[in-house]
Every structure is written in C-alpha cells, then in structure tokens.
Design brief:
- By secondary structure, this protein is mainly alpha-helical.
- It has a domain of about 40 residues.
- Helix content is about 65%, strand content about 0%.
- The chain is globular.
- It starts with 8 loop residues before the first helix and ends in a 7-residue tail after the last helix.
- The relative contact order is 0.17.
C-alpha cells in the first residue's frame, strides 16, 4: 500500500480484510486462484471476497453507537 493512502481508514481496513482472506486460504496462489475466479465468474463488485472486504471496511464509516 502506498504511504499516501495510510490515512484512509476505509482503504486500510479493506486491504486488511484481503490480508485475512489470504491467510485463511493458506497461500497467495490459493488466494489469487479463488479471488480471480470469483471476480471473473461473478464480477468484481459482486465477488464474495470483495463483498466481504467492502462490507467489513464500510463499518468504519458508520458512527459508533
């Protein structure tokens, strides 16, 4: 991640979700295989792994209750 984006909590959280997904998959190859398959077969915005990253990071935009 570029240093000039480190202040963007949404983007940092989004990318950390992808890091957790990579760790769950067990290897970068397994992560990329699944992620790219989802993006190509379902479409990038609707791919489950991308949706997980979007929805998880979106929680940061909501005010704390």
């Amino acid at each position: 991640m570029r240093l000039d984006f480190l202040g963007d909590r949404f983007l940092v959280a989004h990318e950390l979700v992808h890091t957790a997904q990579y760790e769950r998959c067990g290897s970068i190859a397994a992560f990329l295989r699944q992620y790219l398959h989802e993006c190509l077969s379902i479409g990038y915005p609707d791919a489950p792994m991308e949706q997980e990253a979007i929805l998880t990071s979106e929680r940061l935009r909501r005010p704390a209750t």
